[in-house]
Amino acid sequence: MVDPRGTGEAAGAGDDGAGRSADAFFFCLRLLGGRYAFEAPLVTEVVRLGPLTRLPAAPSFLPGVFTHRGEVLPVLDVGQLVGQSAVPIRASTRAAIVQCGPWKVAVVSEAVEGLVVVPRRALEPPPAESTGVAEFLSAIGRDRNGTVAILDLPRLVETARTRAVPAGSGAA
Amino acid sequence: MSQPTAEFLLFQVAFRVYAAAVRAVVRVGTIREASAEDLVADTILGRPFARDRGVVVSAERDGRERTLVVDRVLGVRSVPAADVHELPPLAAACLSSAAIAGFVTMDEAPLLIVDLPTLVRERLAAPATAA
Question: What is the C-alpha separation between A64 and A45, in angstroms, rounded?
Fold first, then answer.
């Protein structure tokens, strides 16, 4: 589990006494009926999804790909990955393009809230549950708009890769 | 100076149009020209509505020809190599088939590029499904 006080490092006003900003910066999406955020520096862009090209033989959490500025990007549905309902994909659906190590992916959302600032002292460890989306939480934070669940997005994307059946493994 | 191009055969299975490298295609014909055991239908691309057109490929090491059953063959298109894209790395890592080779942008829309020999080989290796 990631140290909840070690995420979203960014320069900001104040210091927590350990040389870090007193505030943590996250990028917040509405997903699964709640507020979910991840480290803001992972986000490169927010886009409205264009027409989606569905991929045969793709897991349900990868509903398709779309073209953005000449680049073909996969779309990740966090809801499907954690065994919950799919995020509805419409012409108005927006996604955050994130770069998690070698993987560039568009995380589809119900709505984009944008940058949120959470005081580090308001970050708490996630619940001990290890099922569903709770498995991927690194912290729970609170800001003036309420509770926000902090996702360990790199781990979530890596899990997506490992949960999929790779080509050549015998499945067709 | 002319830019490099790639040639693709466009074909339709059910509602979707796909592209395949022309060099992978032996010929296009009707399925009546092939024996029943050499026909390949019901792949990851779906099941064709009509069983009429066939794309013949050489999918096995011994050179045996197999006929992929499709609904329509739309012809051959030559596209700039710059419009040919690999699968995004995460998509490539997650697909359960190696037959989806990438995309080609045609009329501003991405079309899936299908590796026909791999598609046929994977279908032949898969357990038989109920008709």
Answer: 18
* Residue B112 contacts A where some CB pair is shorter than 8 Å: yes
Q: What is the ipTM of this complex?
A: 0.82
Q: Which residue, among B16, B87, B95, would best test binding to A if mutated, counting the most A CBs under 10 Å from its CB?
A: B95
Instruction: Write down the CATH number for the domain with range A4-163.
Output: 2.40.50.180
Instruction: Using CA coordinates, name the residue in chain A closest to B123.
Output: A172
CB A116, CB A37: distance < 8 Å: yes
Return the number of other C-beta atoms located less than 10 Å from residue B125's C-beta. Answer: 9
Chain A partners of B111 at a C-beta cutoff of 8 Å?
Answer: 53
Domain ranges of chain B: 5-125
Residues in contact with A6: Cβ distance below 8 Å, sequence separation at least 6, in sequence order: none
For the ranges A15-19, A22-26, A125-129, B83-87, the lowest mean pLDDT is seen at A15-19
Residue B5 CB neighbour total at 10 angstroms: 14
Q: Do B109 and A51 touch (CB under 8 A)?
A: yes
* Residue B114, Cβ density class (10 Å: 0-12 exposed, 13-18 middle, ≥19 buried): buried
pTM of the model: 0.83
